[in-house]
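A further point concerns the way the authors explain their paired sequence and structure data. Since the whole study asks how a given chain folds, the encoding of that fold should be made plain. A single example would do more here than another paragraph of explanation. An entry of this sort, consisting of the sequence and the corresponding C-alpha cells, reads as follows:

_____
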Amino acid sequence: MPRPQVEELSEFEKQRLANIAERDALLKKLTLEAQSSGLFAKASLKPSGKDTTSRSKKKPAPRVKKEDEAPIVRRMSSRLRGIQADSEVAKRKADEAFEQAQKAEREKRLRKSDFFTLDNMLVSGQKLAGDALIGIDVVTKGVAKPYERTFADEDVKNTKDEDLKALREEMSSLQLWDQWTPGRIKITPERIYTMAFHPSEAKPLIFVGDKMGHLGVFDASQKRPKIEDDEEDDDPDPAITTLKLHTRTISSMVIQPQKLTRLYTASYDSSIRELDLEKMTSEEKWAPASRSTDEPVSSIDMALDDPNCLYWTTLSGLFSRYDLRSPNKPSSVREWQLSEKKIGGFSLLPSHPHFFATASLDRTMRLWDIRKLSHSNPEPIGEHESRLSVSHAAFNSVGQIATSSYDDSIKLYDFGKKGIASWEPGHKLDEKGMKPDTVVRHNCQTGRWVTILRPHWQQNPQSAIQRFCIANMNRFVDIYTSNGDQLAQLGGEDITAVPAVAVFHRSKNWVAGGTASGKICLWM
C-alpha cells in the first residue's frame, strides 16, 4: 500500500513559525531574568494535565550569551531606590529662577519717583548746547503699498482754487533734511510712541519718547562736518541725546508755551514727570500714592493760558485734572470716569480749555464741558460712534476736531461753525449735531509693530487755512486741510519704514515722523 505524501510547508508558513519560536524564546528568557531578580515567584515548571495548545511548538535553539554583552539592568524609580529625583530638584530650582526673573522684571517696570539729574538719566549722547538743551534764542480695510503715492505733482497742478494751489505748492516743496539720511538719525533704542517740537522758531528741536521710557533729544540745526574723500570711514553720526526718564512707554508729552524750559512727559508707568531743559533735571509731578498701583497714562495736555494745570487720560477710561501748585496727594486730583474702556487720546480746545474731546476704544468720540461735569454720572455734550475704535481726537485753535479710527477713516468735525465759543454750561448736541462734516478714507491698519496713527494739527499756522499731518502706511506723511483736501504727501527714497508718529511744529512748516526702529524723518 503506497505511503501518503506529506505536504511541504510554504515559505510564508516557515517564516511565521520561526517568528513564533523566536518570540517564545524571548518571553522565556525575560521570565527567567525576572525570577532571578526576585520580581515574582518562580512558576511551576511541571506541565499541567491539560494541553494548553493544539499546535506543537518547535523548540528554539538556545541563545549563547556573548562575553562582551552588557547585563540587562532592570529600571527602578528613584523613589524605590531611596534617592530624591533629580527632576524635582531641577524643577524647584527652575521655579525659583523664574520667580526671581519675574520679580526683577516687575521691579524694572515699576516707576521711579526719584529726582533725576543728568547723570541719572543720560543713556547716550551729550548735551546739545552749553549747559542746556535749548538756547535762548469710507471704510474698507487698507493694505499698505510701500512707496506707492496717493497724491502727486499732478494733483497740485490741476488745482482750480488759487489759494489752495499756492498752499499745496508750499507744503509739497518741503524737503527731507539732507544733513544725514533718516537711517542714521536713530534717537531712541525702541519704537517711537510720541514726538513733539519745541515751540521755539530759532531752531528745530525735537523730543521723542519710545516704548521703554527713553527720551531722545535732537537738534536739527546742526550741520554735518565736511569729510574728505580719504576720511569717509570717520564720518560722524549726528549729535543726539538719549535720556532714561520712565520705566515704561512714554505715551505723550507737552510743552506749555508759557513754560518753554519745561517738558512734561506721561507714561504707562503711571507717572507724569517734568524735565527742566536748562538745569537738565527731571522731577515726578504726579503719580499714584502706591508704587504698586497701575494706572497707565495714555495722553496729556495743558491749557494755553494756565501753565500750572495738568490734564490727562488713562487706559482705564479716567480723565484727571491736577494743579501743580497743590501737594501731590490723591485728594488734590480731580477724577472723572468717562469711559469703561481705554481712552487712547484727548485734547483741550486751546481757546476755551473747558471744552475737550476724547477718543475711546468703545468706538466713540465724545465732546465734554468740564464746567458742568458730574463726578458720579458724567454726561458729554454729545458723542459720535464709529464702526471701530477711535484712536485720537485732536482739537485745533478754531474749534475743529480731527479723529483717526480703525475703520480706515479720518473724520473732521467743525464745532467752530456751530458756535462752540459761545456755548453755555449744559449745552447739548444731538446725533445730527455730532455728525462729522467730512470723512476722508485713510489706511489706519498699523498692526502690531507700528505705532497707532494719530492726526496732529499745526496750532498756529501762518495762513487762514488750517492743516494737520498724519502718517501714511505707504511710508509717507500726508498733510490735509480742515476740509479734507490733501495738501502734500511727504516722502523720500531713504525712508525705509513707516513714519507712524507724525507731528507739526506749532507755527513753522516743519514736519517730523518717527519710526518703529527709533529713527526720525524731518521735512523743512
Q: What stands out?
A: The longest strand covers residues 192-197.
